[in-house]
Design goal:
alpha+beta; Immunoglobulin-like; 2 domains; 5-stranded mixed beta sheet; 4-stranded antiparallel beta sheet; 2 helices
Length: about 190
C-alpha cells in the first residue's frame, strides 16, 4: 500500500499484492484490512466508524489473471477531512510480504488542490486578456515586444528592435535632432 490522496465523496480502491518467497502471487489468501481514522482512533467496520478495533475483508481481484492481487473499495462519501491509516495483514502462511501499511488523506488535501487549479485557470484567462488599456495589448503581445527589447536584433542605429532571429520588427523609434524619442511604433506578434 502507499500514501493516497483523494477528494471526499469518492471511492478509493485500496490494493495489495500478496507474494510468496519466490515472488509469485498467492491466491486464496485471507486478507484483513484495518482502516483507522487518525483524528479519533476509530476503525471502519464496513459501514461506519466504531471505537473498537475491527477489520474488513479484502477481495481477490482475479485469481487466474491477477494472482495475488487483493482490493477493498473504500467509499469516502460523508467522511470528514482526515487521514486514514491503512493496515492489511493475513494469516495465510504462504504469503511472505505481509503486512502492508499505507495512508489515505481524504478531503481538503485534494479539494484545496482543485481550488488552486481553478484559480490558476482563472489566472490563465486573465493572462489572455488585455494587460495595457492604452493600446489594448494582450500578455502574448506584450511579451513579444519585451522579448524584442531585451533579446532582439537592432537596426537603424538602435532605433528598430526586431525579433531575436531578426525576421520581424517589433519596436521602431523616431527621434528628433537632439536624439530624443518623439514616437514609438509597436508591432506585437499576433
Amino acid at each position: 500500500m502507499e500514501s493516497i490522496r483523494i477528494q471526499q465523496n469518492a471511492i478509493e480502491r485500496i490494493r495489495i499484492t500478496a507474494l510468496n518467497v519466490s515472488g509469485t502471487g498467492v491466491t486464496g489468501a485471507t486478507v484483513a484490512l484495518s482502516i483507522r481514522r487518525d483524528s479519533d482512533g476509530y476503525h471502519w467496520n464496513g459501514t461506519s466508524f466504531q471505537s473498537g478495533y475491527t477489520t474488513v475483508s479484502m477481495t481477490a481481484l482475479d485469481a487466474t489473471n491477477h494472482p495475488g492481487k487483493y482490493y477493498y473499495d473504500f467509499n469516502t462519501s460523508g467522511l470528514s477531512d482526515d487521514t486514514y491509516l491503512l493496515y492489511a495483514s493475513t494469516v495465510t502462511a504462504s504469503v511472505a510480504n505481509a503486512p502492508w501499511q499505507g495512508e489515505l488523506k481524504v478531503g481538503g488535501y485534494i479539494d484545496n488542490i482543485d481550488a488552486s487549479i481553478a484559480s490558476r485557470a482563472t489566472a490563465a484567462t486573465v493572462l489572455a486578456g488585455v494587460v495595457e488599456a492604452e493600446g489594448a495589448y494582450t500578455v502574448q503581445q506584450a511579451l513579444s515586444i519585451i522579448l524584442a527589447a531585451v533579446s532582439g536584433v537592432t537596426t537603424n542605429s538602435g532605433l528598430t528592435f526586431k525579433t531575436p532571429n531578426g525576421n520581424a520588427s517589433r519596436i521602431t523609434a523616431t527621434v528628433n535632432d537632439s536624439d530624443e524619442r518623439t514616437a514609438i511604433t509597436l508591432t506585437p506578434s499576433t
